[in-house]
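Dear U.,

For the methods section draft, I wanted the exact inputs and outputs in one place so we can describe them consistently. I've listed the two proteins in the order they'll appear in the manuscript figures. Please don't edit the token lines directly; just add comments below if something needs changing.

First protein:
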Amino acid sequence: MESKVINKHFLLLHFIVFIWGFSPILGKFITADAFIIIWYRLIITVIVMFLYIKFSSQSLICSKELLLKLALTGIIILVHWLTFYAAIKVSNVSVTMAAFSTGTLFSAIIEPIFFKRRVRLYEIGIGLIIIIAILMIFSVEGKYWLGAGLGVLAALTSAIFGVINGILVKEVKPAILSFYELSFALVGLIIYFLVSNSTNLQNFNIDQSSWIGITILSLICTVFPFIASVNLAKYLSPYTIILTVNLETVYGIIWAILFFKENKDVKPTFYIGVSIILAAVFLNAYIKKKTAKY
């Protein structure tokens, strides 16, 4: 029975990652800059999550200490989203997704610190294998170093808030956790706009196609996947979730080839790298099943 439950959770995780794999394509498709994309994405997502919570009669009451933790995590999520979409804008989807896969190694190092356990050498090893696969998938040219750097920062922040949520989800329901974190992320972005005075109001006027892209990004690629992924932290370790999210790299690059013809930037060793990432994901699942340490 336990094996069936775990398999169910893995299947849901893979479905979520498949959905997320299309989000960088939308980020490239939307003509607005990263700040405007995140601005509208947060507004739509927070409103829909609030309506869902009210409709499901869940209480929003949390302690001040918990709200502070959710606020700090929300800021980390904001930085993650901004660096992720900024990386796409200054480079391309392939570079961003390749750099983003470094999250596996970050998670293998960060998770033991927060969960107060020993570092598992096989997790470090799998993380290094993923990085080797990334190098095989894509060779970053000099003009893409900024995008690659932002992609790595996005991976680091993703690993951090993923591990933190693995702890916080034990204290608060996933929907409430997600609502507060993204609400605080929105507040953080508002404060940035007020302090920086660097955003032209005309930038908030986006075309119809961008509105369609942002709506899909918010409703399909954010609301359900975000809440569901937080809930999965009850059953799967943050490392396992981050490792599986590497498939987002595979999906994202495949979509980028189909939509933006980015295969010109991808070496022939792409398929070997993809196979290695897939093997690493299932190897981790196999090892964890054998050791019963989720």
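Second protein (the one for the lower panel):
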Amino acid sequence: MKETLSIRLSRTLLEGRRRLSPQARERMKSFLATQRAADEAFVNKAGQADLYYTSFGWVLAYILGFPLDRKKMLHYLDGLDPTALDVVHTAAYLRCRTLLRAFKVPSWTAALWRFAQPLKERLARRDFTSADYPHHDPHSPYAQFIRLMLREDLGEETESSARATISSLEKYHTPIGGFSNEKGFPTPSVNATAAALAVQGQLMGYWPNETVDHLWRTQEETGGFRADPQAPLPDLLSTATALFVLKCYHRSPRVSPQSFVEAHWLDSGGFGATLWDQESDTEYLFYGLLALGS
């Protein structure tokens, strides 16, 4: 069975957990508890239950061994209409459905593949419009990344459209290397570059190439990555996604990122987006653990 992006991410998070001491794990679980809503959903930055943040919270709960009430989880999901969601939230919904089963069976992989089939007919026939995609562009690297993950999680075949997908990404390649999420933009972003490389790797194989070299070179001496060349300082999201994709390509980081990641770990048990941030949320706890595992 082909290893999907969801499985690659889960294996990396499990590796991050393995690197934690029991005390560190408990600190993260304590922070996670502060982000949980009454219905077992997880809250956004405004403190409201949010499907996107819930998808991060449930995977972290599964990885860290944080107990959740499956009946409440099911009630929360049953209150949502997956056919009314955009692409990002549809992917989050499917991930949550998978996690609901994962809390009952021992294997993430088994949960993913057994639960995808009942949802396939209902979700695979969705006619998404451009407005349903990030940046209202279904062809940008980030949109392609989300769509590929969604198709993989639904158990759809992706190889037949691989060359067309890879070709469409070239419109987002920048003159100085790397990718942007905007066509014709002169400078790349780390997240767009990482998304494009993940799509290319899943569809064509994780082979060495110039874009991997470009991403590898953008790491700074601190161990972090800036979102783009104009960003004031490196951030945890860009660092986690870059390290994850480099790991997929079997490329070690140029500089050890351990000190960088630890510097963003807050007393609360969560992770700050940058060194300027002293507050965290469920999404950035995910990025912290992903960076540790990468």
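Candidate sentences for the figure legend, describing the second protein: The CA atoms of residues 34 and 243 lie 28 Å apart. Residues 108-116 have pLDDT under 50 and may be disordered.

Thanks,
Y.
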